Amino acid sequence: MSDGMNRRRFLKVLGVAGGGTAALSGCSTDRVEKLVPYLVPPQDQVPGVATWYASTCGECEAGCGLHVRVREGRAVKVEGNPDHPVNRGKLCSRGQASLQGLYNPDRVRGPMARTADGWEAISWDDAIARVVSELGSVDPSRVWFLSGSETGSFGRMIDAWLAAAGANPRVVYEPFAYEALRHANRTIFGIDAIPHFDFANAHVVVSFGTDFLETWLSPVQHARDFADGHAFHEGRMGKFIHVEPRMSMTGMNADEWVAPIPGTEALIALAMTNAIVDGQLATVPSDISRVRGLIDAHTPDAVADRCGVDAETIRRLAREFAAEASLAVAGGVAAQHSQAHITAQAVNLLNYVAGNIGRTVRFDADQARGASRYQEVARLASAMGSGQVGVLFTHAANPVFASPAASGFTDAYQQVGFKVSFARFMDETAALSDLILPDHDPLEQWNDVEPRTGHHALQQPVMRPVFDTRQTGDVLIRVAQQMGGGMASVTQAATFKDHLQGEWRTLQQRLGDRRDFTAFWNASLQAGGVWADAPAQQVRLATGASSFTDVPVWNAATGENFTLIAFPSLAIHDGRGANRPWLQELPDPVSKITWGTWVEMHPETAAEHEIHDGDILEVTTPNGTVSAPAFLYPGVRPDTIAMPLGQGHTSFGRYAEGTGANVYSLLSGEIAGFGGLSFYATATVVKTRGHQMLATNAGRSRQMGRGIAQAVLLGELTGEVEHEEEHADHAAPVPEHIEEVLDAWQESQYEEMEQGDYAADNPRWAMAIDLSRCTGCSACVTACHSENNIPIVGPELMRRGREMSWIRIERYFEGGEHGEPLETRVLPMTCQQCTNAPCEPVCPVYAAYHTPDGLNGQIYNRCVGTRYCGNNCPYKVRYFNWFDFAKEGEPFHAFPEPLNWQLNPDITVRTKGVMEKCTFCVQRIRAKQDQAVLADRELEDGEIMTACQQTCPSHAIVFGDLNDPTSRVSQLSQEERGYHVLEGLNTRPAITYLKKVRNVAEA
Amino acid sequence: MSGHPGGVLGAFRQIDAATDAVRELKEMGYEDFTVYSPVPNHEIELAVGHKVSPVRMWTLLGGLAGVTTGFWMSLWMSYDWPLVVGGKPIGSVIPYVVIAFELTVLFGAIATLAGVVFHSWRTAKPAAFDGRFTDDMIGIFVPCRPDRRNAVKSLMESSGAAEVRLEA
Amino acid sequence: MATAAPPQPTTRPTYADVTRDVFATLGNPTKTWYILFGFVLSVLAVGVIALLYQVRMGLGVAGYTPPVMWGAYIATFVFWVGIAHSGTLISAILYLFRSAWRTSVYRTAEAMTVFAVLTAGLFPLIHVGRIWYAYWLFPYPNQRMLWVNFKSPLVFDVFAVSTYLTVSTLFLIVGLIPDIAAIREKATGWRKKLYTITALGWRGTDQQWRHYTRAYLYMAALATPLVLSVHSVVSWDFAVSIVPGWHATIFAPYFVAGAIYSGVAMVITLIVPLRKAFKMERYIRVEHFENLSKLLLLTGMIVAYAYVIEYFIAWYSGNPFERASFWNRAFGDYWWATWTMITCNMFLPFFLFFQKIRRSIPALFVLSLFVNLGMWFERFVIIVVSLSFEYEPYAMGHYTPSWVEFAILAGSFAWFFMWFLLFAKNFPTVSITEVKEIIPLPRKKDAHA
Asked: Which domains are present in chain B?
């Protein structure tokens, strides 16, 4: 600009003026704030305008694509990348909480070395020099590297690095490594791979304990596919049968829950296979003769008693399975008992006879991801234990915590001469190390991943590193350079980014892309990666399949003993989520418990032992004892108890330490036939005198006939079964002539409010939530926390019901008593934005009012805190700030530095004493409206997405303008299944729920 | 005690003595005398013969002002910045009745009190006083020229005054 | 039991006796008074500290457990507003009904009213999240260019409670003026100055009485609908909401009756020790207690009727939410609170059908304490128990008050008694003028006899 005031100059002035103002306004605070003026503004940052970067989620192996929203140089929200084939714009809770990994206040802030009395901060040069000197002084055969799953260039570079150093091959530790599945695929099909499971095209899904909507393989993708394949649509829907002694969240979504005697799933799968083969329900491939003897031996009648499921049910399941495109899945940690590979083998046969291999089970897209089997980790442990390990590097693995205490890993680890950790957090393994060289967070680093064959996804730094950390790839390059000799040839590149680009040049050639590399690279970065499909593969029974002749089952517990199922937590996973407060405070989809470990026990069993919710139980297995409060759950067999994994950290930061109990310590270190661990154990339970109120957000788990979460039978919708209205919020219907008078009166009331802005032609924002799609995964809850700066309150306040989450997934049980089948219903409950909102007129200061576009606005600054609105809200979706959650030094401060960097600048951080609530992400609505005005165009339907809708993996939430009859939300609201919660109160909510549809014969 | 004109101050123990004295004083043409009593007394009131206190107009006007203010304020303020709450009309008369009612009472009560103060002040006459008049005696003070004081004094004594004294 | 009461003087007091006896209650306090006052101040200090702690930390230090967003504070607010009611009832309504027995107790009742409203008025402030912005509830031209929402029952409350405080204070002051004038003549020292000023130049002239009696009548006429309205308005805080257990048309009369009931009980609680300490047996006689206890019985029966009707309507309406709410009241988590309330307010008053009880001051005193307790629990049950069990089963919860709430509750009693003790020692707690009014003035024929 010619007048000398260009943008850079303006920002310079702004920065200085900002500093000056802060210095002058000394009366407000004595503390000198650290100011970072924009003296040299980055090229692509405009204050107030968000920048989005594509990257890849590093929270689990699924490799979902990310779009990271960056404001003023800080990542403030993580969303799914809509162009990414794995997650198509959706993200689970854990993926969104990656932001709290980045900003975790308990990150290792720089390189540290162990001294006699603790840790000492050292420089990077010193740290690297120490590594070089240790490496130089030890025989290469005594050097080991233990990493987490790394499927891309970085993993390959470590391998090359180790090879150049002459060290041992890398050991990859993932606690959930799908060993049984891979073992079964090797045995039955001769392929050591994990296929892609196509839930979208399966009309009948049978899951043998697989929690495919929670932690198994690629949950976000599964949730979307499952909803597409299963949800009610135009008169049709799929059927899902879940076979597991415990009803997991995935099981909650089943139309039918079959609870076999623990460990006998293989028998059911084989009996179904038998029924299909026997009844010629499908075109059975001829090579099934290899296992004919096995199949013939397992007729439904033969197995019925052993597995506790009657033969007729098995036959019916087989008929249903064979009749349509189907898919059976086996595995998952919660089904990983010592004979889990047998289950997987039997399920492979079931899929095979039903013709699913190559259709819904596709081996071309391998998802194996290269994790070692646990037995290799055990080999490393025994090498360590016998003093044969001189230097051990660990990267992104925490076996000291996430392996059974009985495996002896912890003791063995301490025998290692020099332990180098690249941990980002002071986890249990890092805490025992000699040197910590903290790695960048995945959101700060360059990397790539290959979650399945043909999918190459890029990770790029979305902001400058928060702390003095360094990418491990760069550290390894530096070490190699300093070691010299053969190691210098590991890479020609000076930095890991260069190395990565080198790899991508090769990839580009392999893909036959003819563009200039910069164009290819930039396009890939922008898209998040490049995707190609692997060629289809013909799969037949392997010759080894004939070795599958007998079916040993896991020894079911007897007498006073229970079968203990250690299941993975949807939020905490194997334990790595435990230091993310969002995940700690995310109510478990099943138990609705936050911040801790619990013991799930059937209410009948509990009644026998006089155990109530919250009684502290001592659970003892041959390997250890753990105390945790009881949670009475009708979704677990009376002879079984279940506990979630991942809590009970002794070192993992403030949010993880001292929260819950470590269930790994109950597991056996014995390696099962498939080379992995068993997550089942035989346990005894002793009730102690202790009692603890459960930190749950659930009031009552029964609907009391109030029709909050409604369901309808498929037959009722298709007219095969007579329709019954199940909710009873009115004793008798209002007669029609009275209804007319009331409506006329209501209309006259509405006419009288057409004043000022209200007289204009406004939209009416509304939502439709399809309960036949909602799985209860709670990703929306985390999205809402992230978008709306919702503080976490901690376990103490959770017990007092003072959670702040604006959206909650209500979980109700139906049946499950007196021999009725248990049905679970979930319902996302958030502000209903009622037309006749009961909360509004009672506010004395207009803090709650109705916006012209139909929102139930809440003006925080105006709120005095009478909480009358909260009382008068029948849906209980208003949340009060009992404390100053956002203020430093307060007892419930929710955003300790740098966690406050995650805050969305578009939203106020609320102070104590005010009421807050969902407003359909009004900031997003206004932003899109403003954009449309600036571009002089009309808003399109679907353009505005609320945070919950944006992330919902199963597309259960639709948002839009109800005044536009063509909008999706208008059309869905007209559906036959549509209803409003507590309709009889005449609140006229803007949220229409579409009833869950149950594909069962009768209720 | 100065501040009051000279006259005769009589103290009575019996009520009928006092009312007799009042009547006779009125017959003699005295109008501006002051009667003290420890309690309000209907007989004295009749004897003195006051008209009904104009304070009631204050109450009425105060109340009317209150009801008007109540409705005007709530309606005007509602339309001044129209905000819809709960799907109700901007100006809803029914709930505003409460406001109007409360202001009626408030304004009425304050106006009544103001009325008492105003009229008591307006009708106050300088007169001699004795502390016993708030205890157990009825007092009558008749302002009169010194030459007529003895006549008044004897009138009071004959009516049954317990004590009569001349005030300078 | 009647033996506990001192012998009743049989001769009628004279005007001079009244002034003398009432004046004797004033003056320099005794040691007992100082001990009591010191105790009251220290309890108040605890309450104030608890409040400051709450303001500093946030409302979370109270026991609130959503969905119970209102708890002990609002219960105590309603309790104190209720206490206030009998004062105005006795002073205004019974005045209009020319009920002579009111004269010796009405001043205490009226003072109790003012101090109870003064106490009650604190609680809406204590309970809001941002007490420092509580003035936003008043309609004033603020920089936000925004007025208050006159549709909100809380704004009704602001108007009702502040009007009630103003009018009952004016009423008390107006009633006090002739009395202060009477004691002015006997007082000495600083008290003389105080009474000279506060008597506002009262001499009891014919003109003064002329305006005064009219004004008192009109104020009584205004206070009568006011007293009925205030607790009706308070009841609408609940009745206009949609909370099951709150949303009932019976609430206004039910609350008014309950308010008078609790207020009469509090009057008895206050007068029994006061009468003893001030040796007022000659003026506050057993007949007064009997009349008060008849009032207690009457209002108690209305309250009992309301309780029964509430349950009946809950059943008869067929509304499942209402039914569930009342089932929960009687047999849910808070059954003990409900049954405390029913026992104290519904069953114990039946003893008042016995004249022996009505005339036994110790028995009445004990009963009045139970009624006070029961009425606090009534508010607790209505507010807390209803809120804990609303529409959404998933959002049902359980609330228990915290130590902060108990400290502030105790502090509120201390605050009330602080005012009362100060008042009792400095202003006549028995109306000199009105007690005199019911004693005939001597006539000439009496002197001859």
From this structure: 7-50+127-167 (3.30.70), 55-122 (no CATH)
| DSSP annotation string for A70-112 | EETTEEEEEEE-TT-TTTTT---HHHHTHHHHHT-TTB--S-E
Give the position of tokens 């400051």: C52
C395 touches chain A (CB under 8 A): yes
CATH code of C104's domain: 1.20.1630.10
C3 touches chain B (CB under 8 A): no
Rg of chain B over CA atoms, in angstroms? 25
CATH architecture of A179-362: 3-Layer(aba) Sandwich (3.40)
**A727, pLDDT greater than 60:** no
What distance in Å separates residue B68's CA from the closest CA in chain A? 22
Chain A closest-CA separation from residue B104 CA (Å): 21
DSSP bridge pairs for A51: A70
For an interface test with A, give the residue of B75, B83, B94, B98 to mutate (most A CBs within 10 A). Answer: B83
pLDDT of residue A796: 94
- Dig out the tokens for A827 from the structure: 């319902």
> Closest Cα to residue A794, out of C401, C388, C60?
C60
Q: Nearest Cα to C113, choosing from C216, C318, C321, C259?
A: C259
Q: Is the bond leading into A821 cis (omega within 30 degrees of zero)?
A: no
The structural domain count of chain C equals 1
Bridge partners for A56 per DSSP = A65
Which chains have 3+ CB pairs within 8 A of B?
A, C
Is A75 a residue whose pLDDT tops 50?
yes
User: What pLDDT, on the 0 to 100 scale, is given for residue B144?
Assistant: 85
User: What is the Cα–Cα distance from A71 to A906, expressed in whole angstroms?
Assistant: 10
Nearest-CB residue to C242 (from A698, A838, A911): A838
Is C24 at the interface with chain A, CB within 8 A?
A: no
Residue A26 has pLDDT above 60, yes or no: no
Residues 119-158, chain B: which have Cβ within 8 Å of A? none
Q: How many CB pairs under 8 A join A and B?
A: 50
Give the up-direction half-sphere exposure of residue A30: CA atoms within 13 A in the CB hemisphere. 0
* Window 416-435 of C, Cβ < 8 Å to B: 433-434
Structural contact between residues A49 and A29, judged by C-beta atoms closer than 8 angstroms: no
CATH classification code of A711-753+761-998? 3.30.70.20
Q: What is the mean pLDDT of chain C?
A: 90
Check CB contact under 8 Å for A874 and C320.
no
CB-based burial label for B27 (10 Å; 0-12, 13-18, 19+): exposed
A449 neighbors A63 (Cβ within 8 angstroms): yes
Is cis: bond before A37, omega within 30 of 0? no
Question: What's the residue count for chain B?
Answer: 168
Q: A562-567 and A624-632 as β-strands: parallel, antiparallel, unpaired? A: unpaired
Q: Which residues of A touch C130 (CB under 8 A)?
A: 863-865, 911-914
The two three-digit tokens of residue B126, written as one number? 């300088």
Note whether A141 and A166 are within 8 A (CB).
yes
SS3 label, residue B140: strand
A366 vs A418, which has greater pLDDT? A418
Domain hosting residue C115, numbered range: 26-448
Tell me whether residues C229 and B101 touch, CB distance under 8 A: yes
pLDDT category at B129 given cuts 50, 70, 90 is confident
> Token pair of A23, please?
């210095």
Residue type, C183: I
Which pLDDT score is estimated for A27? 40
CB-based contacts of C402, cutoff 8 Å, min separation 6: C61, C62, C63
C321-358 confidence digits (pLDDT tens):
999 999 999 999 999 999 999 999 999 999 999 999 99
The yes/no answer on whether domain A562-691 falls in CATH 2.40.40.20 is yes
